[in-house]
User: Fold this.
Amino acid sequence: QVQLVESGGGLVQSGGSLRLSCAASRSISSIYIMGWYRQAPGKQRESVATITSSGIINYADSVKGRTTISRDNVKNTVYLQMNSLKPEDTAVYYCTNGLVWGQGTQVTVSS
Assistant:
């Protein structure tokens, strides 16, 4: 089964940008949907963005206009470009194919 490894998190000031990467252990071209979720302390895990193999994309309202999800089926990697970051974006960000989850990468936005 595929393994997913996230990277790219870190500490950034409000208004800054980060690009998260999710590297898969095998080809993702046949995986129908890939997504990014996040979980802030004391809150439930929530969807941030998803992308299907045909390129259909959905964003959470809270990140729409500031975030871009993309997938590279050659590099077997899914990206999440986040701009204009806000303190409320602080969370652990997870990558998933709907069945398998990565270990997460911490994003902290300071005000």
The mean pLDDT is 96. The CA atoms of residues 58 and 64 lie 9 Å apart. DSSP finds no helices and ten strands in the chain. The first strand starts at residue 4 and ends at 7.
